[in-house]
Design goal:
This protein is an alpha/beta fold and 247 residues long. The chain has seven helices and ten strands. An eight-stranded mixed sheet has the order 1-2-4-3-5-6-7-8. It is globular and about 45 Å long.
Length: 247
């Protein structure tokens, strides 16, 4: 009897896990075909909240897929965006840096690419277009901040270890979304003076910051926060509040 009960539990858990669907989707940004990954749990019916995930500098990888799966199990629809275009990925730091630099030096193009993903997600049949947020890691953090600066009408954006500078800082006036910046206090690439400059520019906007003490990068991982930080430096709850909390 005990063995039967345990088997039933395991089979139930497996069936729940199998309910998560992964769909490669194509959408266009201008003339460029992009290939994203749509992830959702089909156990949840009707339109629901959604999260747009912007990838780090190598392009769409298993890390973004893992994050999307976690969101799907919470009942949300997640779209891993493709900023670089279909089939364009980097498998080493040199190529990744070249790709990321291209878009950091062309912010209008970066905005076009991420807004194209947002448009696809907003029109999806499973998505409530009024309940969309965006999160991004490293290069993706820069990307979602540019999404906010473009004036995207979404609930909130969360940048993890993203670049904060902008060639057009006055574009902060376009921000409609709430903004949460999760940043490593010891990050040598974006020192505290740049954080304070960013904060000053966003002073009249709906934004907040989260500094991870003793951390180089403030990026969530299944076992805590990556890169030399303390167990209490976990911005998960604040992320949920920013992305889907009340405006």
């Amino acid at each position: 009897m005990k063995a039967t009960w345990l088997l039933s539990i395991l089979l139930t858990a497996a069936s729940l896990r199998a309910a998560v669907k992964y769909e490669k989707v194509e959408y266009k940004a201008g003339d460029t075909v992009c290939e994203g990954l749509l992830v959702y749990d089909d156990m949840f019916q009707g339109k629901r909240s959604a999260v747009l995930i912007a990838h780090q500098w190598k392009g769409l990888t298993d890390y973004e897929k893992q994050r999307a799966e976690m969101l799907a199990l919470r009942g949300q629809v997640a779209l891993c965006a493709d900023v670089y275009g279909k089939g364009v990925r980097a498998d080493n730091p040199k190529d990744a840096a070249a790709l990321a630099t291209k878009y950091k030096n062309d912010r209008p193009l970066l905005r076009v690419r991420i807004n194209a993903a947002l448009d696809y997600l907003r029109k999806h049949e499973r998505v409530n277009p009024e309940l969309i947020g965006a999160i991004g890691y490293c290069f993706g953090g820069t990307t979602v901040l540019e999404l906010a600066r473009s004036g995207a009408d979404i609930r909130g954006v969360v940048s993890f270890h993203g670049g904060l500078s902008s060639p057009t800082p006055t574009d902060a006036k376009n921000i409609k979304a709430k903004v949460l910046v999760c940043h490593g206090a010891d990050d040598p690439f974006v020192p505290q003076r740049k954080c304070w400059r960013f904060r000053k520019r966003c002073a009249t906007r709906k934004w907040t910051g989260s500094s991870c003490p003793m951390a180089i990068a403030c990026i969530p991982s299944p076992t805590g926060t990556r890169a030399r930080t303390t167990p209490r430096a976990r911005p998960t709850t604040r992320t949920r509040m920013c992305v889907h909390g009340a405006r």
